[in-house]
Amino acid sequence: MTYTEWVSWIFILCLFGPTPISSESSLSSNIPTNFLSFARKQEVVDWLVGVRRKIHENPELGFEEVETSKLVRAELDKMGIPYKYPVAVTGVLGFVGTGEPPFVAIRADMDALAMQEMVEWEHKSKIPGKMHACGHDSHVAMLLGAAKILQEHHEELQGTVILVFQPAEEGGGGAKKILDAGVLENVNAIFGLHVFPDLPIGEVASRSGPLLAGSGFFEAVISGKGGHAAIPQHSIDPILAASNVIVSLQHLVSREADPLESQVVTVAKFQGGGAFNVIPDSVTIGGTFRAFSKESIMQLKQRIEEVITRQAAVQRCNATVDFHEKEKPLFPATINNPNLHKHFQNVAGNMLGVHNVKDMQPLMGSEDFSFYQEEMPGYFFFLGMKDEALGRLPSVHSPHFKINEDALPYGAALHASLAATYLLEIQPQPSSREGKHHDEL
Fold first, then answer.
1. What's the pLDDT tens digit per position in 129-144?
2. How much is the CA Rg of the chain, to the nearest whole Å?
3. pTM of whole model > 0.85?
């Protein structure tokens, strides 16, 4: 073959031959399945279940997660993972990887709810009036599982994964306190998850854009003049005033909100009176309000106060309104970053199959994960745990709530895969806050 013919063949091969696959692309597509295989090892599953059950037996409310935090730190010590503690009272931040940028965070909430567990089983809550009725015990176990996976593969990480064990999600705004501590200033993205009883195990669901509503709480004391129920003309009835207030509050959504924008105002608390024939001096009502924009949340807040005070005045009563923002800050809406949505679909699709990655409609529930999303790109998704063989699982915030522990390896592997592939594939632009590193590593 002549020199000219050789050149022609080489040109044809380069033009029509197979396109080489980059090692990074190949590695990133293998990570999800490899990590899930690791998480499904029997010794890892047994450990995940054991951790989750220990936490479940000892539920702690927001900013009281002393024993939970101690357990987290003990497990990180066993893995040889450095951490920062305390952060936001009881929070823990672990660090896996190079200690250098880029930084990506994965988060779990640690707090329980003030309710009595009604599930009778070997690992029932040992603390009267407290229960992990929202699955945060499983979230902590899964994040520790992700830590174990990432530490096992730490030499492959092209950056640093920050493990955020956060206190006080249930109304306490623990995410805001984490941010206020300044420990996530250099983070380029953050991921979070929540178990979902209505979604089959092996499936996940989320969406780009608004996912969960912003929320706030209110409490009002409506004061009148107590007296005998048989002679109401000598009294000023706060129960009647409160009843008118509640009806008027419903008009905020039905008459003042854009019909194309979802909003909720719910009065869930009504306390007043203790006898059949006595008009009380005062009544306390309280509830929550939800919307998908900060503007709507602030508008609802303003109008709730106006309606309560003015409607009470119509009935000759006085009213004071407290939004408890110090203890229960207003939550923004949870809005998923569109680029991270594509990343999630790719990673979850590689792990679970694209048919098991579902798009979902927004929910009126709220999550303080939204505070992170105001400061950095963030993504939140739901992890299925329904198994038809086990029957229908009760909803979250129920005293009968149960976790399907078969979901734990999926959550651990997804957390780890989202973080590791983010560092590998999505190399972000340098932060404007250069020079800040995590010295813990």
1. 999 999 999 999 999 9
2. 26
3. yes
